[in-house]
TrEMBL record:
Organism: Albimonas pacifica
Residues spanning the signal sequence: none
One Gene Ontology term of the molecular function aspect: hydrolase activity, acting on carbon-nitrogen (but not peptide) bonds
Protein name: Alpha-D-ribose 1-methylphosphonate 5-triphosphate diphosphatase
Origin superkingdom: Bacteria
């Protein structure tokens, strides 16, 4: 090597990382081996060989997790009722929390559609300003992981149409989900469960609960059809993946299929999940549901869908750490660790058209997570996003 070649060779070496002595979670199997990262991409996979590099001590090395639906940002934006936290600070904290749980790509599920006129249960707009904060921090290079946009279109609301109008194709909305929380339907078809939720979480009296239910019922009659039409049209205009939410019966799924939905978020019954499979719609369930052994709303258990072969994707929903925990648990339940991790890596990537990540394969992004499973809960010991350790 000449003196002239030395700087180039050193620069190339600096761009290369070797992770060795790992259990590699591939698409359909787990093997011992090493991964070579070069220029942010997976360059080589060496099965059954030990190379010089960072020794992962036999830990799992899996694709970085992909989260399609998390409400976690809202919790950071409003850590207490009536307390609004600065948006950029909220995004930074949210980003750090997700990175600590092994998530390399998140679709931030941001609500569009608010209620202002019912004073006792008003909730305001925040989608546009939250999106602006995320975009600003991305431009500044301040975020650890990859953030993509998921708009949760609240059908039973007052401001959905005007909030959708604040977004354009330049915002690169990747998912639009149709959420209808009308009392007596979908997630809360069981009014007793809805009452328990509202009176427990919000401290409402019986009279306040009854008044709110009447308000929502009347609002739904006025706006549900036009709001659903507008949300579906927006998704098509932006080229976003459409997702249904809380499908309960075959009719719901058939309507979702007519709209062009590719993902069913949290179907509430076995009947609906089976109908999704018939229509080629990927079924996503909550990781907390799988870990707890059932739905907090009294709906179908994720484990039951897994047993029927109907569980395609897991989402952390409201507990970021649950995504990795559920992937490991599903792998243990089925005796197939690769299958468990596929629900939080390959399957969500395929459902949303992310062809550059979701597997450990040459040429894909080096989004990787190192996981140790010898503890009460899986422990993240390293996360790489496009080859950069974060």
């Amino acid at each position: 090597m000449t003196l002239a070649e030395a700087p180039a060779r050193a620069a190339a070496s600096a761009r290369e990382t070797v992770l060795t002595n790992a259990r590699l979670v591939l698409a359909d199997e787990v093997i011992a081996g090493s991964v070579v990262i070069r220029d942010g991409r997976i360059a080589e996979i060496d099965p059954g060989r030990t190379r010089a590099g960072e020794d992962l001590e036999g830990d799992l090395l899996a694709p970085g997790l992909i989260e399609l639906h998390t409400d976690n940002l809202e919790r950071h934006c409003q850590p207490r009722p009536g307390v609004d936290w600065p948006r950029e600070a909220a995004v930074i904290a949210h980003d750090a929390e997700l990175a600590s749980t092994g998530i390399a790509t998140v679709f931030d599920a941001i609500r569009v559609g608010s209620v202002a006129s019912f004073e006792k249960a008003a909730y305001g707009k925040y989608a546009r300003e939250a999106t602006d904060a995320i975009n600003a921090l991305k431009r500044q290079g301040a975020l650890r992981i990859s953030h993509l946009l998921h708009l949760r279109a609240e059908i039973c609301s007052e401001t959905l149409v005007e909030e959708l109008a604040e977004f354009t194709p330049q915002d690169e909305v990747r998912i639009v989900s149709l959420m209808d929380h009308t009392p007596g339907f979908r997630q809360f078809r069981d009014i007793a469960q809805l009452k328990k939720y509202h009176m427990g979480k919000h401290g409402r009296t019986q009279a306040e609960f009854d008044e709110y239910m009447q308000f929502l019922g009347e609002l739904s009659l006025r706006v549900s059809t036009p709001h659903e039409t507008e949300a579906v049209a927006a998704a098509r205009a932006w080229g976003a993946t459409l997702a249904s939410h809380d499908d309960t019966d075959v009719a719901h799924v058939e309507a979702s299929a007519r709209h062009g939905a590719r993902i069913a978020e949290f179907p509430t019954t076995l009947e609906a999940a089976r109908a999704c499979r018939d229509h080629g719609i990927a079924v996503m369930m909550g990781a907390p549901n799988l870990l707890r052994g059932g739905s907090h709303s009294g709906n179908v258990a994720a484990a039951d869908l897994a047993a029927e072969g109907l569980l395609d994707i897991l989402s952390s929903d409201y507990v970021p750490a649950s995504l990795l925990m559920a992937a490991v648990k599903l792998g243990e339940m089925t005796g197939d660790i690769a299958r468990g991790f596929a629900t939080v890596t390959r399957a969500p990537a395929q459902a949303t058209g992310l062809t550059d990540r979701g597997e450990i394969a040459p040429g894909l992004r080096a989004d990787l997570v190192r996981v140790r499973t010898a503890h009460a809960a899986p422990v993240v010991r390293g996360l790489w996003v496009e080859g950069r350790r974060v």
